[in-house]
UniProtKB/TrEMBL annotation:
The gene is ybeY. Transmembrane segments: none annotated. Belongs to the endoribonuclease YbeY family. Keywords: Cytoplasm, Endonuclease, Hydrolase, Metal-binding, Nuclease, Ribosome biogenesis, rRNA processing, Zinc. Single strand-specific metallo-endoribonuclease involved in late-stage 70S ribosome quality control and in maturation of the 3' terminus of the 16S rRNA. It comes from Helicobacter aurati. PANTHER family: ENDORIBONUCLEASE YBEY, CHLOROPLASTIC (PTHR46986:SF1). This is Endoribonuclease YbeY. Its main location: cytoplasm.
């Protein structure tokens, strides 16, 4: 798994973000899962996060479909995503240009739908997600590189939400990344019966992260 990061504003290298990363690493040390040493760097943390989600997603699919053609360890090395960090003005422009929605938002995802599985062929809303440690063979394989899609994160919103909800910037970045990455894998919480919410919750809780976007929206609707 590779991630091409575009951070033209320098958000990840700002003093506040770097300070948040130092604090957030203490959270990572409490996680009872194998985290590669390279993931201790802030920019490669997102690679770990993508691998962690993807491996558990593949294990889930394989548990239902034992004759899957592509093995996880080979397929994962052929994937890359684009991860862009932008401000509110830029994400509003992107939202309008591609989705015809004239407002800013916290995160956007643009899946290319290249995966050979549809998660809804296997997962039901009441499925009990049990996650596994990340342990991936680092050997390169000769599968052509394929782009899963793009994730665009609004750094202005990251700062606002982290402050409002009193949690770390990297906790907020993780929540947004997890939510958007699941969209790249084919999940759609606006149309499903809770499958994305449940899988997202399992991932967040296993990583000691606070509640996510779907829960926030539900609480906002009921408050």
């Amino acid at each position: 798994m590779q991630i091409d990061i575009v951070d033209s504003s320098g958000f990840l290298q700002s003093a506040k973000t770097l300070e948040s990363w130092e604090e957030f690493q203490r959270n990572l040390q409490q996680i009872p899962y194998r985290i590669e040493s390279s993931s201790r760097e802030s920019t490669t943390y997102f690679v770990f996060l993508a691998k962690y989600i993807f491996v558990n997603f593949c294990n889930l699919i394989h548990s239902f479909c034992q004759d899957s053609v592509i093995s996880t360890d080979k397929f994962i090395h052929s994937l890359f995503i684009e991860l862009l960090f932008v401000d509110s003005a830029d994400i509003r422009d992107i939202n309008y240009e591609y989705l015809k929605k004239d407002y800013s938002t916290d995160v956007l995802s643009f899946p290319l739908q290249i995966l050979p599985w549809n998660p809804y062929e296997f997962i039901t809303a009441d499925y009990d997600f049990v996650l596994c440690p990340v342990a991936i063979d680092g050997t390169a394989h000769s599968i052509p590189m394929q782009c899963l899609g793009s994730i665009i994160i609004n750094t202005d919103e990251v700062l606002l939400q982290a402050k409002a909800l009193k949690h770390n910037l990297y906790a907020e970045l993780s929540i947004l990344f997890i939510h958007a990455f699941l969209h790249l894998l084919g999940f759609d919480h606006e149309r499903d019966r809770g499958e994305q919410r449940n899988f997202e919750k399992a991932i967040r809780e296993s990583l000691n992260l606070p509640y996510g976007l779907i829960e926030r929206n539900i609480m906002g609707e009921t408050s």
